[in-house]
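As a point of orientation, let us examine one representative protein, giving the amino acid sequence and C-alpha cells.
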Amino acid sequence: MAYEIPVTQARAELAELINRVVYGGERVVVTRHGKPLVALVSAADLQRLEESEAGAEAGAEEQVISTVSSMRTLPSVAEDRGRFGIAAEHRASDAPPRH
C-alpha cells in the first residue's frame, strides 16, 4: 500500500520521502486536493514496471500476429461457380463493377 501525502507537505519533506522510498521500500503518492498526481517509487520498482509493460506489449503483438496468420482466405467467385452453379453466377452479377 502506498503512503499518500499532499504536494505542499511533500515539498517540505522531499529528502525524507526519498529515504522512505529507497531505504524503506515504500511507495509514496503525492496528491493535490486529494487526487493522485505522481508517485515516488524505487528505481527497482520502476524497472520492474517497465519490463512488465514491455512484456505485455510483446504479448499483444504476438496475439495479433497469431490471429492474422490463422485467418483463412475465402474462395473466389470463380471457385464458387463450380460448387454452387447458378447461385454463384447470380451473386457475381449483383456485385458492383470493379474499376
About this structure: The mean pLDDT is 76. The helical segments are 7-12, 14-24, 43-69, 77-84, 86-94. The longest strand covers residues 35-40. Strands lie at 3-6, 28-32, 35-40.
